[in-house]
């Protein structure tokens, strides 16, 4: 809660023309915003540009920000929209860039186990990961955004609802449908091991 109070105080100061207060907000959230945009935009140089553009848009719109939602949910929404607009302007749709990010997280999370992993198990894991990310990439945009914010960013349903500007029930439904879609897409890989029954 102290972070929200601090954010609100910084926003209030920035709205009164204190650019140093906005700089503090940028420093606080820049890594999260860059990580979020990196899930949509593959080129690291473009990620930096899109993040900068998102913060510029936020700065220009700061006068319209009402503290009805947390600052970070507001800036997340701006970042997602800026990333999507960037991809549309380039004639692209979001790439499956999460795979590289998740590979690093999997290695960090299970480093000791990966030393004992057999080549067959490593291949099966890689195929499963690829199937999961391909399934997420194939989702409609609203489902993809909801599942990305929940599973990769770890945001609460309430925060996602604020970012996506929809009721919490809609967020739950979208995440459920996204998980169900992914489960159906990876089911053949999972049942392939049990075909002997």
Automatic annotation (TrEMBL):
Q: Which residues form the RNA polymerase sigma factor 70 region 4 type domain?
A: 132-179
Q: Which UniProt keywords apply?
A: DNA-binding, Sigma factor, Transcription, Transcription regulation
Q: Pfam families in the record, alphabetically?
A: Sigma70_r2, Sigma70_r4_2
The reply to whether DNA-binding figures as a keyword in the UniProt entry is yes
Gene3D superfamilies xrefs: 1.10.1740.10, Winged helix-like DNA-binding domain superfamily/Winged helix DNA-binding domain
Determine if Nucleus is one of this entry's keywords: no
Q: Which InterPro entries match?
A: RNA_pol_sigma-70-like (IPR039425), RNA_pol_sigma-70_dom (IPR014284), RNA_pol_sigma70_ECF_CS (IPR000838), RNA_pol_sigma70_r2 (IPR007627), RNA_pol_sigma70_r4_t2 (IPR013249), RNA_pol_sigma70_RpoE (IPR014286), RNA_pol_sigma_r2 (IPR013325), RNA_pol_sigma_r3/r4-like (IPR013324)
Give every RNA polymerase sigma-70 region domain span.
25-92
NCBIfam families documented for this protein = RpoE_Sigma70, sigma70-ECF
Family to which this protein belongs: Belongs to the sigma-70 factor family. ECF subfamily.
Protein name as catalogued: RNA polymerase sigma factor
Q: Which organism is it from?
A: Larsenimonas suaedae
Cite the source lineage.
Answer: Bacteria, Pseudomonadati, Pseudomonadota, Gammaproteobacteria, Oceanospirillales
């Amino acid at each position: 809660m102290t972070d929200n109070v601090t954010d609100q105080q910084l926003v209030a100061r920035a709205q009164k023309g204190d650019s140093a207060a906005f700089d503090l907000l940028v420093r606080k959230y820049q890594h999260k915003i860059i990580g979020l945009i990196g899930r949509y935009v593959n080129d690291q140089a473009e990620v930096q540009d899109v993040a900068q553009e998102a913060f510029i848009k936020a700065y220009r719109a700061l006068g319209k920000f009402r503290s009805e939602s947390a600052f970070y949910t507001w800036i997340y929404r701006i970042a997602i929209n800026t990333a999507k607009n960037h991809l549309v302007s380039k004639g692209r749709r979001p790439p499956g860039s999460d795979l590289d990010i998740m590979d690093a997280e999997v290695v960090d999370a299970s480093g000791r186990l990966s030393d004992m992993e057999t080549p067959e198990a490593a291949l099966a894991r890689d195929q499963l990961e690829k199937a999961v990310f391909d399934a997420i990439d194939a989702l409609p945009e609203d489902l993809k955004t909801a599942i990305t914010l929940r599973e990769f960013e770890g945001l609460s349903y309430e925060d996602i609802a604020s970012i996506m500007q929809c009721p919490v029930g809609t967020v739950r439904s979208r995440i459920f449908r996204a998980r169900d879609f992914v489960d159906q897409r990876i089911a053949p890989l999972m049942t392939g091991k049990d075909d002997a029954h």
